[in-house]
Design goal:
This protein is an alpha+beta fold. Helices cover about 40% and strands about 25% of the residues. It has three domains: about 5-125, no CATH class; about 125-280, Lipoprotein localisation LolA/LolB/LppX (outer membrane lipoprotein receptor (LolB), chain A, Clam); about 310-425, no CATH class. The chain contains 13 helices and 17 strands. The strands form two sheets. Strands 1, 2, 3, 4, 5, 6, 7, 8, 9, 10, 11, 12 and 13 form a 13-stranded mixed β-sheet that branches. Helix 3 crosses helix 7.
Length: about 425
Amino acid sequence: MNNHEKTNELLTAFALGELSPQDSSDVEKHLAECPRCTTELEELRAVLECADAMGQISADEQECESAKQRILDTAESEQPTKPPAATESIWRMIMTTKKFKLAAAAVIVIAAVIGANSFLGGTVTFAEVVKPILNARTIVFDLVIGNDEDSPVMHEEVQGSRIRRTISNMPAMVMILDLDDNKMLTLDTHGKTAGYVNLGQLAKKTKNYIESVRTIIIDLQNGLDIEKLPERQIDGRNAIGFKGGNDRGSITIWADPKTALPIKIELARERFPATFKNFEFDPQIEQISMDIPAGYTQDKAQLDLSDADEQDLVESFRIWAEIILDGTFPDVIGTDHFTKQLGVLGQKIPSLDIPDSEKEQVGLQFAKRMIFLQNFETSGKWGYAGKGVKLGDTEKVILWYQPEGSNAYRAIYGDLRAADIAQENLPK
């Protein structure tokens, strides 16, 4: 039992003045550093003071026993992780202290008014946990897309509509995004070069990293079922969890049971699993500016990612097969797998026997493919069957998708030919 739990169990006796001098001193030291226990003590004292004031009320023993059982039943249903012995001991303390025994009937009424959870030790609520997520003006966190342990980690600093982003497998690159203006400033910290990128639809997808979490939380607050999870260890820390969602996916939020601050958020979607962790809420961070820093040279051309189309998707598959995977298509595709391969591609591009201007286009085409795919990745109808397929295979469909607003499907084959395909001919 840690110091917090030990002190919490002594709060009732402390409020009644029945602790030894040493235990009282220990509790006072803890209270000076723990706002939550201080709040619980204040609420407990309020109950006891009300009960004391009503000390002249007679109480039938059967009524007291009934009141006791209702409190214990409420505690058990609302606090599945709290040991029943803890609530039993609180009641026993009240019932064996003469001046409170006669007011037991009043206590059940008071407990109902202020909330049984407060009277019986308190518990972190979903509303407390999500409050900083919804209200923070600045947020810093790490984002891992995918379920693999070796997935790259995005470090995000969010300040209003602007984001400063770095990715673990591209340590020399800093991305500064202005989501209101649909633009990104890229900084190469090694070469001291900078360039602007027109994001187009990518801005909306980028915004969803944190905004999608907020949207799901609001949906949960508006009526979706929220399941409270038992306490467990998350990244070496005790945590309580809340889980909810719908047919599109689920979200699980783990929080510190003492402070109610989120520790980890797990977003589970079939094609877009993500984990948010290492949160800082409302930290003081450097102003995020879209101006090119002193000492950097600006690239003359401004890249445009707003016009990604099917041909960009086809070209990216060629890059993936020819440059990254030596003649075969990837086993799986998606945002998480694409992010992993960015670092690999970045290492291989410098050694390509092509002009520097064409090397720049290789990276651009690969990025555009991801933007086009993201347009239907999370909600559209599509599938992938490129595992084991060799570049040049004319018979194999590696990817198919249904364009927005269309009843027909498009298919991309192993020879990178794109054509319409009937639904009955789609790969099974």
